[in-house]
């Protein structure tokens, strides 16, 4: 009986810790959902590369200050991995930031979430890893959703929607590379480095193609600080901490709420709405993303049930 009680207490603590981690992931997802609104606001007074430089430059300084001990112990391999991931982050954020100028916040949120279904597609193409049936189903549903959300009466996709979809493809590449790199390097250090590299590329391109400057209105300062502190620094740190205590399945499902939050912020603050077919498309994309992520563990549930019955009988 003592062993059983000890097990229950230990399991209770574990469940409680996972619930806290899931709640933290929910907050992170909420923050990332707001990033589309803040980027749209920032683009009113800042050019694309300037915005990227400020967002990730400030985030790098803040995240680096929190995890400075990790940066002190950095090696050349981790530095190289961070450079690759940071460069890819810069490319995808450039594409997404430009795309936001020509599409809605809601469209951007739902279309960018497609990175979840692009990952297994790329794995199948590059590494010949056959996707599961649930993933194939999710991809099919998401494609129908994309068509309803983006195609106009002339069956054409506007440039902004296309760029957001392209950004989702780049993000899927980054997810795959991050998975490979973190097997041989510290994930938090890599995350901090990629923020710095993306910010540095943004600053360089801003000097070449733009006239970089600091925000000159309270609104633009607010959007940049929100993107840097809330969406990037706190978002990154929160994700790193939370993922230690929850499962990949929980993480994926919670992240699938990001476009929902994006649409919610768009409606609340700028009164943005979608046409009827757009909402249907958005719902189908969300269903496709969740279908690709969710895992049914019937065997695990059956084992837990049997153990519970045995414990009760004892």
Automatic annotation (TrEMBL):
- Key word Membrane present in the record? yes
Q: Where is it mainly found?
A: membrane
Recorded family membership? Belongs to the EamA transporter family.
Keywords tagged on the record? Cell membrane, Membrane, Transmembrane, Transmembrane helix
Membrane spanning segments where?
Answer: 21-39, 51-68, 80-102, 108-127, 134-151, 157-176, 188-209, 221-241, 253-270, 276-294
- Highest rank taxon of the organism: Bacteria
Taken from the UniProt entry, a GO cellular component term is: plasma membrane
Which subcellular locations apply to this protein?
Cell membrane
Residue stretches making up the EamA domain: 20-150, 159-290
Identify the InterPro entries for this entry: Diverse_Substrate_Transporter, EamA_dom, EmrE-like
Q: What is this protein called?
A: DMT family transporter
Keyword check for Mitochondrion: no
According to Swiss-Prot or TrEMBL, what is its membrane topology? Answer: Multi-pass membrane protein
Pfam families the record matches: EamA
Where is the signal peptide, in residue numbers? none
* Source species taxonomy: Bacteria, Bacillati, Bacillota, Bacilli, Bacillales
């Amino acid at each position: 009986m003592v062993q059983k009680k000890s097990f229950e207490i230990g399991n209770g603590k574990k469940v409680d810790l996972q619930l806290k981690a899931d709640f933290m992931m929910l907050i992170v997802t909420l923050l990332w959902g707001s990033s589309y609104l803040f980027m749209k606001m920032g683009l009113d007074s800042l050019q694309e590369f300037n915005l990227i430089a400020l967002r990730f430059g400030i985030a790098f300084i803040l995240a680096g200050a929190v995890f400075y001990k990790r940066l002190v112990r950095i090696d050349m391999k981790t530095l190289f991995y961070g450079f690759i991931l940071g460069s890819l982050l810069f490319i995808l954020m450039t594409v997404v930031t430009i795309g936001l100028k020509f599409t809605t916040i809601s469209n951007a949120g739902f279309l960018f979430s497609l990175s979840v279904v692009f990952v297994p597609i790329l794995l199948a193409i590059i590494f010949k890893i056959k996707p599961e049936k649930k993933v194939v189903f999710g991809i099919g549903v998401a494609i129908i959703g994309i068509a309803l959300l983006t195609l106009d009466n002339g069956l054409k996709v506007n440039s902004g929607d296309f760029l957001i979809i392209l950004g989702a493809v780049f993000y899927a590449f980054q997810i795959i590379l991050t998975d490979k790199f973190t097997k041989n390097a510290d994930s938090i250090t890599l995350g901090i480095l990629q923020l710095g590299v993306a910010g540095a590329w943004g600053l360089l391109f801003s000097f070449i193609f733009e006239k970089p400057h600091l925000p000159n209105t309270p609104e633009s300062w607010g959007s940049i600080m929100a993107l840097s502190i809330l969406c990037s620094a706190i978002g990154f740190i929160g994700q790193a901490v939370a993922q230690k205590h929850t499962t990949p399945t929980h993480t994926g499902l919670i992240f699938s709420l990001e476009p929902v939050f994006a649409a919610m912020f768009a409606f609340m603050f700028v009164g943005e709405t979608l046409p009827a077919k757009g909402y249907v498309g958005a719902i189908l994309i969300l269903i496709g993303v969740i279908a690709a992520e969710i895992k049914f563990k019937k065997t695990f549930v059956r084992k837990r049930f049997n153990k519970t019955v045995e414990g009760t009988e004892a």
